[in-house]
Automatic annotation (TrEMBL):
Superkingdom to which the source organism belongs: Eukaryota
Record protein name field: Protein Nterminal asparagine amidohydrolaselike [Xiphosphorus maculatus]
UniProt keyword annotations, A-Z: Hydrolase
GO CC term (a single one): nucleus
Any one GO molecular-function label of the UniProt entry: protein-N-terminal asparagine amidohydrolase activity
Length: 297
């Protein structure tokens, strides 16, 4: 619906290219420079919720102080999108790539569903305070690569966030020229990763030299109960939360790609079933003809 730029100005339409966007919105460029000028923080493991590629999660420190930082890294042609509610402090983060954004068509790609989930989870954890503040959006990643894949991701995400059914305030769009540097003769990304301190509501560049696999005990117990028929299953909302108020990381699924993969299998099964039905019908026809011959009909 509406993207508001720093200062409250409304973005009326999506430009045709990244450079056009920056030419028309210089305040975003200044905000990007302020972000990339900061030093990367080498992150630790304790109380950190790490989002891997093609994942998304949401957390609220007011009820779950076991998670104070939420972050992701390795956004080269990928993009990390952060949504933060200014009043409740609830933060949602998604790590989007070619597969999520445009590779199998924008209309049914994973980034659209991912954005809807992020907004839903922010609303659920904000518990009635969603309209009391703004949702600020930061997008980082997408350095200037040779094939131009990153630029496609950037524009695909920008078009997608304009279509969500709420007002979003764009703070950073740190992509393309604002996130590109030259290292040993090759272009690479300036920002290696991004992190948000849920307690201070601060967003900063970060490095994660490890892979964290959190033990989401609540979901594991629920899955055990479901499979073994022991006890009651959780409500649908709680089923997707960790203990207290953190929505667990979920895979960003590409519906178009899924359909592309399963369609040949479905067609093959249909052809096989049709062949079997034809054989059955042929047998029935032959059988009844023989009966008629015996009866002299």
């Amino acid at each position: 619906m509406v993207i508001q730029i720093l200062g409250g100005r409304t973005l009326l339409s999506i430009p045709g290219s990244i450079q056009e966007f920056f030419n028309e919105n210089p305040e975003i460029g200044e905000s990007n420079l302020a972000l990339t000028s900061r030093e990367h923080v080498d992150m630790w493991r304790d109380r950190v919720l790490f989002i891997k590629q093609r994942q998304q999660a949401t957390s609220d420190i007011r009820e779950n102080d076991k998670v104070q930082w939420i972050g992701s890294h390795a956004a080269m042609t990928c993009h990390i999108l952060v949504m933060k509610h200014t009043v409740t402090g609830v933060v949602s983060m998604g790590h989007f790539d070619n597969f999520c954004c445009w590779q199998f068509g924008e209309e049914s790609s994973a980034h659209r569903e991912g954005l809807d989930i992020m907004l839903y989870e922010i609303g659920a954890l904000s518990r009635g305070f969603i309209d009391d503040g703004r949702i600020e959006v930061t997008i980082v990643g997408g350095y200037t690569d040779i094939r131009g894949d990153a630029a496609k991701n950037s524009m695909s995400l920008l078009r997608a966030i304009q279509q969500v059914p709420t007002i979003l305030n764009l703070i950073h769009f740190c992509v393309g020229p604002y996130n590109t540097t030259v290292d040993n003769g090759s272009t690479t990304a300036i920002l290696k990763g991004i992190c948000v301190d849920l307690k201070t509501k601060t967003l900063f560049p970060a490095m994660f030299n490890w892979c964290q696999f959190s033990d989401f005990k609540t979901q594991i117990e629920d899955r055990f109960r479901t499979r073994n028929g022991v006890g009651e299953q959780m409500d649908s909302e709680d089923r997707f939360k960790t203990k207290d108020s953190t929505f667990k990381p979920k895979s960003l699924r590409n519906t178009a790609n899924r359909n592309k993969l399963i369609e040949p299998k479905i067609n093959t099964e249909r052809a096989q079933n049709k062949h079997i039905d034809n054989k059955k019908n042929s047998f029935k026809f032959s059988y009844f003809n023989r009966i008629n011959d015996i009866n002299g009909n």
